[in-house]
Amino acid sequence: MILSTEEIKVLETYRLSVVRINSPLSIRIDQLHKENVLVDYLEKVRQKLGAANKVVAASMLIKRYSFLAAMSLYAMSVWNKRLVLSPERIWMETDDNDDMWLPTFRFEELKAEICTGCRDQWREETVRQLFAGHFSPLIEKLRSITKISVHILWENIAIYIYWLYETLGKDDSLAYIREQLYNDFHFLVHDADGALFGTFRQNPLKRFWKGNAGVKQRTTCCLYYQTEGGMHCQTCPCILRERYPKTS
Fold first, then answer.
1. I want to staple 198 with a disulfide (CB 3.0 to 4.6 A). Which of 2, 134, 136, 185 is the partner?
2. What is the residue-wise DSSP string for 67-123?
3. Three-state SS for 2?
């Protein structure tokens, strides 16, 4: 089924776009699964952000790319719809005038599949398609090329998922599905099997969850401070180590 105009407008807040942009950093996302293309693209990202190296560029790429997960999970949890994520039909578009590099996602044909059967099984398959089928292969390519820790990349994704469900949970207009939102988040972070995220024995989102109380201190550093004009995030573990250094 095709999404409505109103639904498209909502997803635009998660960086959905219908605008095609001619930029060296605009790319059809299936091309990122080709190692030679990904190496070249990381260098373009590195130059765009003034990043120290391709490790930093890889982290920033996944941070930007994570909005595709937020967009997909919103559709799943709020509308009971699964976005059709065909990599050969999705473009990551870049406005060259944007110094921050906040790419948008343009679908050649934006379609969704509605849940008609057992929702628990449908949700499990939705998560599998999104993470094991879509994110995990790219993360493995980035790890292979740059040797970046996959924990950094998965935490980059996790923080946006935590943010998404925290935001939805506070939205009074969604009070009628609050239990569903809670159940979906609990499944993603606690109950989902590691295999739904790729070749994992344990759920990669679970290891970073520190509960609802207080500031959610990151476990890993996203390396944003190693970009031009970048700095440590307020939840960066490096700040915590500086404030409370270990003593011998």
1. 136
2. HHHHHHHHHHHHH-EEE---GGGEEEE--TT-TT---EEEESS-BEEE--S-HHHHH
3. strand
Give the tokens for residue 215. Answer: 């500031």
Q: Residue 16 in 3-state DSSP?
A: strand
Give the length of the chain. Answer: 248
Q: What share of the chain is helix, strand, coil (3-state, %, to 5)?
A: 60, 10, 35
Mention every residue, 6+ apart, whose C-beta is less than 8 A from residue 36: none
Question: Could you give the CA distance from residue 168 to residue 69 in angstroms, rounded to a whole number?
Answer: 15
Q: Say if CB 63 and CB 156 are below 8 A apart.
A: yes
Residue 106 DSSP one-character state: E
Q: Please provide the DSSP assignment of 18-60 as one string.
A: ------TT-EEGGGGGSHHHHHHHHHHHHHHHT-SSHHHHHHH
Joined together, the tokens standing for residue 180 give 């569903």
17, two tokens: 């776009």
Q: Decide: pTM greater than 0.90.
A: yes
Residue type, 48: K
What type of residue sits at position 65? Y
